[in-house]
Amino acid sequence: MSRLRAFLSKFAAPLNKRRRERELALELAAHLDMLTEDNIRAGMSKADARRAARLHFGGMEQVKEECRDARVLPFPHSLLQDARYALRGMRRSPGFTAVAIITLAVGIGINTAVFTIANAALFRGFPNIDPDNRIIYIETSEAGSVQFGATSYPDYEDWKAQARSFTGMGIVLDGARRLIVSNDGRARGAYDGTVLSANSFEVLGRDPILGRDFAPSDGTPGAAPTALLSYRFWESRYGKDRSIFGRTVRIDNKPTTVIGVMPAGFEFPHHRVDLWLPLVPGPDILKRENRRFFFAYGRMSDGVTIRSAQTELTAIGRRLENAYPSTNRGFRPFAKTFRDRFIGRHAAALYSSLWGAVGFVLLIACANLASFLLSRAAGRSREISVRMALGAAKRRIVRQLLIESIMLSSLGGLAGWFLARGGVRAYELLAHSPGDYDRFYYSLDYTVLFYLAAISISVGLLFGLAPAAALSKLDINTALRDGGHGATSGARRKRLSTLLIVGEVALAVVLLAGAGVMVRSFLKIYTANPGVNTTDILTASVAAKAGQYPDERARLALFERIAARLKAVPGVDSLAMADAVPGRNAPESPFELAGKPQDRPIATAVSIFPGYFRTLGARVLAGREFNDFDGLSAIPVAIVNRQFANRFWPREDPIGKRFRLFDGPTPEPWRTVIGIASNIVQNDDTGQTFYPVVYVPFRQRPATFVYLLARTDVPPESLETAFERQVQTIDPDLILSSGLYGGNGPAPLSESALIGNWSRGFNAVLFLVFAAIALLLAAIGLYAVIAHSISRRTQEIGIRMALGATARDTRNLIFRQGMLPVGIGLAIGLPASFAVNRLLKSELVGVSPNDPITLLAATTILMLAAALACLIPARRAARIDPAVSLRYE
Fold it and tell me: Using CA atoms, how far apart are residues 649 and 442, in angstroms rounded to an integer?
């Protein structure tokens, strides 16, 4: 029985303690009410009587604290009590709570969204590629070239045979192409597809979820064509119909057997790939000099680093140079991670800058809330002083205030989560140009959720520390005597408020300066003169299928039939064709000047039809333009641009000079220069540089595809459908692409600069939005601090005006005091922007990171916003009535 009583007493003890606590609390409350009634009878007001009674029983709060501490779990209970108290405080101040949550939601939300984007690009790795970077991209590069290099199939075969740093290598078409799918029981349609080596998915470590992978025999000449489908394509076109496997459909008019489907979400090497075909090496692909279409990749063996793999590839490249000097001289293989290849070597700086920008916005939001809480602390000092007088410990007060801040920031973080989801979705839709294939998968995964939770708690601590520290140092006697004003409106609080405003202004000017140089850079690109009049020009590209148009004469006949049809379309003023459009990457070729056989410089070579310069609004400065007689049987001729003439024949007349281009190791016929054209931007998306360009007649150097360039008398967009209909009339299997970064269908040439620099423009807009938010928050913070200061200084201002100060004097005084921290913030922020803007240098075109015009504009905008924020409360202070203000409080 004694053991049973002991066992039951363990459960009865907490209940007994709670009963004693309630009895003690009721007894103390009864004594407090009795003493309050005695004080009222003695002539005190009800409020003073209650205050005197509480001071008399100052130990009541301490006794209650001790009773709570005697419970089984005092700490969780007290935390729960603090949380309830914080919620009641939020309900009592709905306006402040709403402003705080919205401010924090903006700061935390955009911070989380940018972290999600940076996490996908910098940390999670390229989609469907080994995140440990065991799979690397391999390309060739030639000295003097302005283009990145792809690779040739024979080089890839030699790398695969000789390299020991890789467990496997694959090769894939660098870019998707439009494929016609028909004869499958559904409407004929065009889809994005690519070709790759049969072992590609084995190298990537990905298997089909249905069907089989490509076999080595699928990539041999003469093999029956096969295809693998993406999961999205299988779902959208065939409704996950399993009967499609093993069936023969027509892809680009070739009977092709569908052998399987890849996993959901798998897209390689680009976004939007619908189906894959095995690479079957043909005569053109087997040319070692043909380096325009493919890139290689390999899975590194365990223990191999990119540096050691690069060393081995360099050695192989030297051996190939010695073995094939005519095709491989100057060409070396280079290994990169997929992330470095597709997002650029400056991506880390760009994403870090974006991340830093939103970090500044968050810091400004925290500074704002800290200022608001400091101002609010003046109203709460009486409450806190009474609690401390009744025995509440300082650490309990600080904890209570920090819990309030953390609860606010948690609610802001919750709202920020939804804002981040919307921001990431908007970034996916807007940050990439319409034809951009290179995308990452942005998901708010557990890493992002952990980051959100961490910054929400950290932010709560950050903006809650200053007011908590200020309130914990209250002078209780002064606070109770003066109503709480003296303790929180002194020098300490003013210094904290001023420091917060200085920090906000400094961060805002850094963001404004960064956004300014990004916007100026994009405007430089967008307004650059490409050397042609891009207004009212419709462009499209069309390729002749090798199976249907096997030789040059057949392709030329097709393109000329297309040109004749399109010229007859109502609204077309003139039409030209070429194998490249202005600004875009055009083929580069080594060439040799007559009399200088030892030199092999590189120039851009563009094959054009007659009427090219007239259609584009360019000019032939000397000599003549091509005509219909410059064909295969005529004397080989060429036109060079002014940049080419000035560089290679300075102070000489280029007309009549001779040179020859090289197709790999094979020299082409000697060409005679018959004209000098004005400079047109080529191979430079930014439109800032004119490179040497040679133009040759398309009939003398035909390609397998052409770009159509039509100058119109009507809006170019209105002719897109007519162009597609005319081309389909000639050959239903022909597909018109825009010719601008992989887009589908014809498109105005004026979009070229915008589409080619879409990401630059979007990043500039992002920086501008972040800077605008920072400017708005800083202005609101400055206004709130000054307005609150005026409300606390009403008596002082009234005394000044009663002693003779005019409304103008009062307005100037408030204005000067408000602008002083702004000036200090500018003095700190402008030098800081010099250092921060250097991180953006890789993204800037034609603009210095320390551009004085941008810095002046940023300073002016910030000063105007700050002046407005100071002027409004200053004008209100100037209208204070001295007679009313002297009776204030």
Answer: 52
Q: What angle do CA 147, 149, 151 make, to 5 degrees?
A: 155
| H helical segments located in 70-93 | 74-92
The whole-angstrom separation of Cα 815 and Cα 870 is 6
What are the phi and psi torsion angles at 294 (to 5°)? Answer: -120, 155
Higher pLDDT, 143 or 260: 260
Beta pairing partners, 608: 578, 697
Nearest to 613 by CA among 602, 623, 600: 623
- Rounded to the nearest angstrom, the gap between the alpha carbon of residue 264 and the centroid of all alpha carbons in its chain is 25
Which of 575, 605, 593 minimizes the C-alpha distance to 682?
605
pLDDT above 90: percentage of residues in the chain:
13
pTM of the entire predicted model: 0.70
Contact 60, 28 (CB under 8 A): yes
The span from the CA of 16 to the CA of 479, in Å, is 39
Q: Pick the residue with more confidence: 338 or 307?
A: 307
In this predicted model, which residue has the larger pLDDT, 376 or 576?
A: 576
Q: Which neighbouring-strand residues pair with 406?
A: none
- Predicted local confidence at residue 697, as pLDDT: 93
Residues in the chain: 889
Share of the chain above pLDDT 70, in %: 77
For the beta carbon of residue 817, count every other beta carbon within 10 angstroms: 15
Query: Between the CA of residue 710 and those of 151, 564, 576, 613, what are the distances in Å?
Result: 33, 12, 6, 12
Structure tokens at 722: 């007519």
Alpha carbon distance 837, 849 (integer Å): 5
Highest mean pLDDT among 53-62, 67-76, 92-101: 92-101
Cα-Cα-Cα-Cα dihedral sign, residues 410, 412, 415, 421: negative
pLDDT of residue 11: 45
Give the span between the Cα atoms of 476 and 54, in whole angstroms.
Answer: 14
Q: What is the mean pLDDT of residues 321-340?
A: 82
Query: 703: which DSSP letter?
Result: -
**Interval 450-492: pLDDT, tens:** 888 888 888 888 777 767 666 666 555 555 555 444 444 456 6
- Of 805 and 691, which is predicted with more confidence? 691
503: left (phi over 0), alpha (psi -120 to 50) or beta: alpha
Distance of CA 193 to the CA centre of its chain: 27
- 32 or 818, which is more confident: 818
Collect all residues with Cβ–Cβ distance below 8 Å to 855 and sequence separation of at least 6.
513, 516, 830, 833
> Average pLDDT for residues 182-202, to the nearest whole number?
85
Using pLDDT thresholds of 50, 70 and 90, give the confidence band for residue 70: very low
> Within a 13 Å sphere around the CA of 163, how many CA atoms are in the beta-carbon half?
33
Find tokens 């002082």 and name the residue.
796
| Distance, CA of 224 to CA of 220 (rounded, Å) | 9
Q: Please report the pLDDT score of residue 260 as a whole number.
A: 92
Q: Is the peptide bond before 715 cis (omega within 30 degrees of 0)?
A: no
Q: What is the C-alpha to C-alpha distance for residues 560 and 567, in angstroms, rounded to an integer?
A: 10
328/152 Cα distance (integer angstroms): 10
Give whole-number Cα distances, 274 to 194, 195, 236, 420, 864, in Å: 8, 11, 10, 30, 53
Question: Which helix (H) or strand (E) is 608 found in, with range?
Answer: strand 602-608
Mean pLDDT score of the chain, rounded to an integer?
Answer: 79
Q: How far is CA 269 from the centre of its chain?
A: 21
Give pLDDT, residue 636: 92
Residue 797 has pLDDT above 60, yes or no: yes
Which two tokens mark 215? 């076999």
The full DSSP string for 609-627 is -TTHHHHHT--EEEE----
List, as own/partner pairs, every contact residues 398-403 make where C-beta atoms lie below 8 angstroms and the sequence separation is at least 24, other chains included: 398/468, 398/469, 398/472, 399/82, 400/82, 400/85, 400/86, 401/464, 401/467, 401/468, 401/471, 401/472, 402/460, 402/461, 402/464, 402/465, 402/468, 403/79, 403/82, 403/83, 403/86
Extract the tokens encoding 868: 């407005």
